[in-house]
Specification:
The chain has about 270 residues and is an alpha+beta fold. The protein is about 20% helix and about 35% strand.
């Protein structure tokens, strides 16, 4: 066990971890993806000088499949319209689902799920402000107090997630198994899930880091000087061969084989 691991328990009434190969209807993976787990941790505490590597996801409640139909929009807001609305808010023209630009789509999602996320916290190459233990203490404090930058969600924003800090993953699994009246390993003994989305950002590029530059360090040039330093990480679909064993999804990038497929927007 590493001393830079954090464990967060998350649960919610509904979840949908959308499979990217489904072009029209939303169909969820049967378990939370590493990218969704990373999103939950960054919702609780995001800092550009650190990054998360998801170590494992334990399944406490598998949930059950259910389907429903809902209205979704077909258009997205353009940057030109966004800039216009920022200058003149009265010209705001929101895009309404079902208001002439929406369509009905089916969703195959999960109901009543609970997971235990264990992640490794690392400092980026550009981190210069605080030692790692300072960030670990901040993550623990925020998680224990229920604080977050925005409400974490289980796959899609309308499926809000509750969360809590856990000191030890093994003790939490044993406690929840006793509360549910079952052996936690029997919840999902073993299953090959096939190819699963790992993330849409390369963790190796994120490791190079990002930071804002104080005015004193900003080079003086005739052109507008950059206020930040680092690497702009481009979206890149990364997949891995997922498998459940003992109700655990092992997904540390050093232990699983990743396959990359650059997103083209098509």
């Amino acid at each position: 066990m590493s001393d830079n691991l954090v464990t967060i328990r998350v649960w919610g009434d509904f979840a949908c971890f959308t499979r990217p190969e489904m072009k029209v209807e939303r169909v969820s993976y049967p378990v939370m993806t590493p990218s969704a787990a990373r999103g939950i941790l960054e919702a609780i505490f995001w800092e550009p000088e650190i990054y998360y590597l998801i170590d494992s996801i334990h399944v406490i409640k598998r949930g059950r499949w259910f389907s429903f139909r809902r209205n979704e929009v077909e258009k997205v807001i353009s940057m030109n319209n966004l800039k216009t609305w920022m200058k003149a808010p009265k010209k705001l023209e929101p895009i309404m689902a079902g208001g002439g630009v929406g369509t009905q789509r089916n969703m195959l999602a999960l109901q009543a799920v609970e997971y235990l996320i264990t992640a490794e916290v690392r400092r980026s190459d550009l981190c210069s402000r605080h030692p790692l233990k300072t960030y670990l203490a901040e993550i623990e404090r925020r998680a224990k107090n229920g604080k977050c930058y925005h409400r974490p969600y289980l796959g899609v924003r309308e499926f809000a997630a509750d969360f809590d800090w856990e000191d030890d993953a093994q003790r939490t699994l044993e406690r929840r198994a006793a509360e549910l009246g079952k052996n936690w390993q029997s919840i999902w003994p073993e299953e090959e899930l096939g190819l699963m989305l790992y993330d849409v950002f390369n963790h190796e590029q994120r490791a190079e880091g990002f930071r804002w530059l104080p005015n004193a360090q900003t080079p003086s040039t005739k052109k507008s000087a950059p206020r930040w330093q680092g690497v702009l990480v481009k979206p890149e679909a990364i997949f891995f061969h997922a498998g459940i064993k003992g109700a655990k999804l092992d997904c540390h990038p050093h232990r699983v084989r990743l396959a990359r497929n650059r997103i083209t927007g098509e």
